[in-house]
Structures are given as C-alpha cells and as structure tokens.
Design brief:
InterPro entries (chain B): Aromatic_CoA_ox/epox, Ferritin-like, Ferritin-like_SF, PaaA_PaaC, PaaC
Low-confidence stretches of chain B: none
CATH topology of the largest domain in chain A: Ferritin
Shape of chain B: globular
Number of domains of chain A: 2
Low-confidence stretches of chain A: none
Organism (chain B): Panacagrimonas perspica
CATH architecture of the largest domain in chain A: Up-down Bundle
Protein name (chain B): Ring-1,2-phenylacetyl-CoA epoxidase subunit PaaC
Radius of gyration of chain A: 22 Å
Order of helices and strands of chain B: HHHHHHHHHHH
Strand content of chain A: under 5%
CATH superfamily of the largest domain in chain A: Ferritin, core subunit, four-helix bundle
Distance between the termini of chain A: 55 Å
Number of helices of chain A: 13
Mean pLDDT of chain A: 94
Oligomer: heterodimer
CATH class of the largest domain in chain A: Mainly Alpha
Strand content of chain B: under 5%
CATH class of chain B: Mainly Alpha
CATH architecture of chain B: Up-down Bundle
Radius of gyration of chain B: 18 Å
Largest interface: A-B, 48 and 49 residues
Number of helices of chain B: 11
Helix content of chain B: 55-70%
Order of helices and strands of chain A: HHHHHHHHHHEEHHH
Structural class of chain B: mainly alpha
Strand order of the largest sheet of chain A: 1-2
GO molecular function, one term (chain A): phenylacetyl-CoA 1,2-epoxidase activity
Pfam family, one (chain B): PaaA_PaaC
Largest sheet of chain A: 2 strands, antiparallel
Largest sheet of chain B: none
C-alpha cells in the first residue's frame, strides 16, 4: 500500500503489557480515538510515525510519475485535470506530514529520512510512466488500490490520521474516476490508443497488486497493527478486494488483465489470480526498481535547489520581526 | 465596428500569453522549492490554463471552420503563436520564475482592468473572472519579490540577476501595433502603451521594497512575439506540448 511493511518494533521485557498499555489497548478496543496529547506506548507512536510519514512520502514521490506527463497532456482539459490531481497529491503530502508532526517529529526530519533512504515510500512509484495511458492506469489502479486501503483507515485509532484519511479519500475517489475516464477515451479511440491502454494495464497490473505488501504469511507486523487498529484488513484481504473490483472494470473497457490464471471461483465467491513475483517486489523495495534512484535524485535536487529560497524567506521573516521589536521598544 | 479577423488576432494574444506561461509553470509541478510553494505555483498554472481555454475557445468560435481550444493550442506552429517573448523564457532558477511572473502579473492586472470594460461583452466577462485570479497572482509574486530581494545575500543576487536578465523582455507588453490599435479603436481592447507609466511605478515600488534596482526604462527591448517572431525557446516548448496531438492526428483524448 502507500505504507508497506511498516515495522511495529519489538516489545522488550517479555510479553507482559504494563498497566498503562493495558488501559491504552482497552480504549482502542472500545473505539475511543487516540489524540496527540494522550499517553501512548512508544512503539505505537513510532509505528505511526513510520506509517504516516511513509504515506506522506508516497504522495510526494507519487507526484513525479504523473507529473512526467503534465507538459505533454494531449488536451487542455486533460492537462487541467492532471495538474489539479498532482497538486492534490502535494496537498495530501502536506496534510499527512502535519498529522505525523503531531506525534513529535518535524517535517524536515521526515524529508531528511526520505532523502537518506531511511524512510520508504510505496514501491509503485518506482515504475516509469512510458505513455499517456500510464496516467490513466495510475488513476484507475493505483489510486483505486489506495482507496481500498485508506477507506478503512478513516476509522483507524489515531485521530489526526483518521481525519486526514477522510479528506484524502474523497479526492482519491475522484482521481480514480478520472483515470478510468481517460482510459475509456483511449479504449473507444483509435487502435493505437487502445493498444496504449492495454500496454499500460500490462505493465501496471502486477505492481498494483504488489502495492498491498507481502502475503499475510510473511507479514510480520500486521498482527500488532491490527490490534492497534492502525491497519484494519490484511494485505491479502485488500488485494483480493482490489482484484474482484477491477476485473469487471477491465472487461467493460475491453482490456485483458495480463494473468492467464485469473478466473472466477464460484466456491470462494472471489477471483483466483496467478502467482505474484515477490522477488521483484522485494527488489523494488530494496532500491532496485526501474526508477528508485531517479525518483529520489529528483526529490533531492528539488530540495537542494530550493534551499536558498527557503533560507531567504526565513531571513526576511527574521528581519521583519526584529524591526517590529525595535519599533515596539 | 470590430473586424472579426482583428478580434481573433487579439484574442490569440491573450490566450497564448496565458497558455504559454501556464505550460512553463507546469514544468515546476512536483519540483518546487517548498511544498507550499509548489502547490501555490500550480494554482497559478491552473488559473492561467483556465483563462487560456476561455480566450482560445472564443477565438476558435470566431475562426469557425471547426477550430476549438485544442486545435489552436496543439496544431499551430511557433510562428502562429502570439504570446510575448517574456513568457516563453525558460524557468531558470526559481528567482527567474518569480521575476517573470511578477513582470507579467503587474501588466496582466492592468490589462484585465481595461478589458473588464470592453465593449465586447464576452471579453468583458472573461476579463472580469480572470482579474479576480490575477489580483491574487500579483499579490503573491509581489510579496515574493520583496521577501526574496530582502532575504539573504544569495537570494538578493539571484533576484537582481533575474530582474536584469528578463528586463529586455518587459517592453514588448507595452508595444502597440495595428492589432492593438484596432482593438482600442473599436472599443473591445486597449492601447497597451498607455499602461507603461503605471506599470513602471508599481514595479519600481516593489523592487525598491525588496532592495532591488530597477534597470533603465530606456534600455533596448526585445520584441516580435506578438507578431509571431519568437525566441528559440518556444518551438522546443511546443514540440513537447504538442507531441501527442501531432503524432496521433484526429484522435480524441
């Protein structure tokens, strides 16, 4: 997902929860939201910082693959939609950084962690956008998957995160519809346009399924996160939901999902799907995806090139407050 | 009485100015110097793109023959574009982008005030809507000129270099030709030479507040964009912007 394989830390001193932790867990079980000023176990705080900042970084890095097509959008209307969408992502990033800051970490620290490679972002944004159809595929599949994960998070235990998710989900739903609408135009267009859409689906399908993170059997931190209600469904549950939702949508477009093993299983009431190449996923997470280096280099360059700008604004603000003080004295 | 061809030529200038600057600003999206700044600049890009669509749609209606906003944006060559040279200049560093914006915003707000009382109701309506947005653009870019000018030594040097570099492209906005004079005479447009004094006074005031020097108003000015003679930058920009429409003729997106 936008936050994948979030480490929940290891509990020291055996398995006994101390009294404060028991009370904390009871509140969560009773559905009472945790707010920034409330006491919380250190591991809960750190896990949330990792999860929310990873989510924020995904929004920020996620601006790049689609931003790649802003200057080449094929109509003024599509250009306006794409510009607004990429701007929304920046807004989500800002909102999520602010939510993470309520847990006691600064935005600058989070940005440093992204640039140094200490913090991760979603594996999906390390794939290239090779044609215009990729912009549609991202809206449809990637934002579609994000919604799948984030709608339950609107009910997560941490107040600022859940409120951020409510706002973010509204916009993501819009993005998904826009992406689907773009692909619809391509699929109803020339044979070349339809081929472009099929090619985009071929390349984005498997990475989109990987987005939900490793299979439940290998997902070591899921249990703790579920207990804390900062993860409400398992990776495999969400992945299945995504497949079930997407297959009829692809059929409607007249596109073929690139999975020979995909078929309806009447007994389960779900689609069965083929094996996911987890070796590829782990490699992308480790930094070996097609665009990992490029994405971080682009973000770092933007940050470094902007240093003089940020410093100047601070310097000007300092001058102003000094002259105000002098005037008051 | 207004002549349809003159009005068309006039609308192209307004539309191309907004389109070309919006295209440049779109290049920054996702790469701005701070997250808030990235979002604000994209807002400006979106406003200008919206304005470009209104002007070009109106121009396309006057042109008839099946033209629309997209055929005008995507199927004209560089020599058919009528934007001023200032706006096609590359983004450079962020100081160049801010100064380019400031010079244009200061003109744009004055221009739209004139167009708001155009005798062509459609022009007046578009200008009225655009002016609300551009007043904000101008407030924002003026504020940045002051803060970056009177910030650090580095920021001040960059801003002064940008002012000096872009200054020769500022004069064209006030250069009246036949298209402008026809518009002024028919009452749907204005004579841009009449805006220069007010523009200079405002720009001087803001630059001074930002501890920056106004270059000589008598300096030699580049021109030609309004007549379709551009700098080398425009055709490169268009080759990127127009690629899909040009390589898939007749496709709808």
């Amino acid at each position: 997902m936008y936050a994948q394989m979030v480490d929940t830390g290891t509990r020291v001193a055996g398995n006994e929860l101390d009294a404060a932790e028991v009370r904390f867990q009871k509140r969560i079980d009773d559905g009472i939201r945790v707010e920034p000023q409330d006491w919380m176990p250190d591991r809960y705080r750190k896990t949330l910082i990792r999860q929310i900042s990873q989510h924020a970084h995904s929004e920020i890095v996620g601006q790049l693959p689609e931003g790649n097509w802003i200057t080449r959008a094929p109509s003024l209307k599509r250009k306006a939609i794409l510009l607004a969408k990429v701007q929304d992502e920046a807004g989500h990033g800002l909102y999520l950084y602010s939510a993470a800051e309520t847990l006691g970490i600064s935005r600058d620290q989070m940005v440093d962690d992204l640039h140094s490679g200490k913090a991760k972002y979603s594996s999906i944004f390390n794939y290239p956008t090779l044609t215009w159809a990729d912009v549609g595929a991202i809206g449809w599949l990637v934002d579609g998957s994000a919604i799948m994960n984030q709608i339950p998070l609107c009910r997560c235990s941490y107040g600022p995160y859940s409120r951020a998710m409510i706002r973010v989900c509204k916009e993501e739903a819009f993005h998904m519809r826009q992406g689907y609408d773009m692909l619809m135009s391509l699929c109803r267009g020339t044979p070349e346009q339809k081929q472009m859409a099929q090619d985009a689906l071929n390349r984005w399908w498997w990475p989109s399924l990987m987005m939900f993170g490793p299979p439940d059997a290998d997902s070591v931190h899921s249990e703790q996160s579920k207990q804390w209600k900062i993860k409400l469904f398992t990776n495999d549950e969400l992945r299945q939901k995504m497949v079930d939702q997407t297959v009829p949508q692809a059929e409607y477009l007249g596109l073929t999902i690139p999975d020979a093993d995909l078929k309806w299983n009447a007994e389960r009431g779900h689609y069965d799907y083929g094996a996911i190449d987890w070796e590829e996923f782990y490699n992308v997470v480790k930094g070996n995806g097609p665009c990992n280096r490029e994405r971080i280099a682009t973000r770092k360059k933007a940050w470094d090139d902007g240093e003089w700008f940020r410093e100047a604004l601070v310097a000007h603000a300092d001058k102003k407050s000094k002259s105000k003080l002098q005037a008051a004295a | 009485m207004s002549n349809k061809n003159d009005t068309y030529a006039y609308l192209l200038r307004l539309g191309d100015n907004a389109l070309v600057l919006s295209q440049r600003l779109g290049e920054w999206c996702g790469k701005g110097p701070a997250l808030e700044e990235d979002m604000a600049l994209t807002n400006v890009a979106l406003d200008l793109l919206g304005q470009a669509r209104l002007w070009l749609s109106y121009a396309a209606e006057l042109a008839g023959d099946g033209a629309d906003e997209d055929s005008l944006a995507y199927l004209r060559d560089a020599d058919q574009f009528r934007n001023v040279l200032l706006l096609e200049q590359p983004n450079g560093n962020y100081a160049d982008t801010v100064v380019r914006q400031f010079f244009f915003d200061a003109w744009h707000a004055l221009a739209l005030q004139q167009l708001r009382v155009s005798q062509d109701p459609r022009i007046a309506e578009i200008a009225d809507k655009a002016l609300k947005e551009v007043n904000y653009h101008l407030r924002r870019s003026s504020d940045l000129v002051v803060r970056l000018g009177d910030g650090t030594e580095i920021s001040r040097n960059r801003m002064q270099a940008a002012v000096d570099h872009l200054w020769p492209y500022s004069g064209e906005m006030f250069d009246a030709d036949g298209v402008d004079l026809a518009a002024a005479a028919a009452g749907y447009g204005f004579d841009p030479s009449g805006l220069r004094t007010e523009w200079l006074a405002y720009v001087r005031e803001v630059l001074e507040e930002g501890t920056l020097k106004l270059p000589s108003p008598e300096a030699w000015m580049q021109k030609g964009g309004k007549q379709g003679r551009h700098t080398e930058h425009l055709s490169r920009m268009l080759s990127e912007m127009q690629i899909l429409q040009r390589s898939h003729p007749g496709a709808t997106w």
